[in-house]
Amino acid sequence: xxxxxxxxxxxxxxxxxxxxxxxxxxxxxxxxxxxxxxxxxxxxxxxxxxxxxxxxxxxxxxxxxxxxxxxxxxxxxxxxxxxxxxxxxxxxxxxxxxxxxxxxxxxxxxxxxxxxxxxxxxxxxxxxxxxxxxxx
Length: 136
Description:
- By secondary structure, this protein is of the alpha+beta class.
- Helices cover 21% and strands 26% of the residues.
- A hairpin with a 5-residue loop joins strand 5 (40-42) and strand 6.
């Protein structure tokens, strides 16, 4: 989405009546809404994120996920399971975060996809943290 397509102003609306009329300076990487300096921010990696609650929550979740991956990687370098307070040896890898875990902390989930008009299942091994992102 370009900076000037659609509306010529910021996305922010207060009380469903008052719209911000300032010129947009960026477009959110998550929702694609244009925003002004007051209703968004630029991250150090040059990504732009608006102040919409869904986008702010998503940004926090990504920060938590990066911290979790770093902690699990530190435990993996010591030869232990990536789950906190688990001294067991590694057994397998999580398909989502790519960290190593013991057999007790890996579970199997599947995703449904269609191939040649037939419904198929693709199975994954995931850790407890990544399991919350799958329905099964």
